[in-house]
Amino acid sequence: MRVPNARTTEDVACLKGHAGDVWAVGFSADGRTLASGDGDWHRPGDVRLWNTADWTERAALRHTGEVLALAFDPTRPRLAAGSWDKPVKVWTLPR
Questions:
Q1: Which residue segment(s) compose the domain that 72 sits in?
Q2: Is 20 left (phi over 0), alpha (psi -120 to 50) or beta?
Q3: Who contacts 63 (Cβ-Cβ below 8 Å, separation ≥6)?
Q4: Structural domains of the chain, count
Q5: Which of 1, 78, 83, 85 could form a cystine bridge with 15, CB 3.0-4.6 A?
Q6: Mind giving me the DSSP string for 33-74?
C-alpha cells in the first residue's frame, strides 16, 4: 500500500503486509496510527495498524469478511471495522 504526501503526491512510504486489495483506511484522532483493511470474497479480511512516525506495523487484526470500513473512536483506544458479511468488529487497542 502506497502512502503519498498530500502536498507533493510523492510516496512517503510503501507498506507491505496485506494479502488482498486494501479497501479501507483511517487515521487515529492523534494522527499517530494508520489503520488499513483488506480482503477478498474468498478469505477473511485483515486490519493492519501502522505507526505513522516510522511506518512500521504495530499490529495485525483478523475480521470475518472483506473489510470495507474503518473508524477510530476519538475518545478511547478502539477501532471499529465493518465488512461485506455485515458484522462490525470493535477492538480495544494497545496504547
A1: 2-92
A2: beta
A3: 37, 39, 44, 45, 46, 47, 81, 83, 87, 89
A4: 1
A5: 1
A6: EEEEEE-BTTB--EEEEEETTT--EEEEEE-SS-EEEEEE-S
| Integer-rounded Cα radius of gyration of the chain | 13
Q: CB atoms < 10 A from the CB of 75, how many?
A: 7
Using DSSP's 3-state secondary structure scheme, residue 14 falls into strand
| Cell numbers that stand for 27 in this block | 487515521
Count other C-beta atoms under 10 Å from residue 87's C-beta: 11
Q: What is the pLDDT of residues 33-76, one digit of tens each?
A: 999 999 887 788 999 999 999 999 999 999 988 999 999 999 99
pTM: 0.90
User: Which residue is associated with the grid cell 483478523?
Assistant: 62
